[in-house]
Predict the 3D structure of the following.
Amino acid sequence: MAQWYWSELRYALTLREFEPQSWRDWALIPWGVERWFLALALTALRAPLLNLNWRVRERCWTLFLITRYALPLHNGRHWDTTPMICRRCLWGGPERWLVHTYTGGWDDGDVGACDECPRCGAEL
C-alpha cells in the first residue's frame, strides 16, 4: 500500500500533466509536497490508533463507550488521511480535504460520486 503513495508522488513530480497558469503555480509546489508529507505522517500515526480502538471495541465494550469519541474510527471520507496529490496543479494533502461532488454524463441520467482537487477542480 505504501508503494502506491510513493509512486503517485513520483509521477506527479515528473510534471508530465502539470499545467502552470502563472509563476504562483511554480511557487506553490513546495507547499503541496509538504502537505502531502503531512498527510503521510497523519496516516502513519492514525493506523495504530485505529487498531487500538478496534481492539478496545472487541474486548471491553464499556471502555469503548468512553473512548469512541477520543480515538478515531474509520468513518469514510470525512476522516480519511490517505495522501493525495493532484497531477495538474500539484496540490497535496489528505483525502479528507478534497471536494466531494457528483458527476453525471451517463445515458440513464444517473450521477456518481467523485472527489475533486480544491485548487483546480480536476477529478482525482
About this structure: The longest strand covers residues 99-103. The chain has one domain: 24-116.
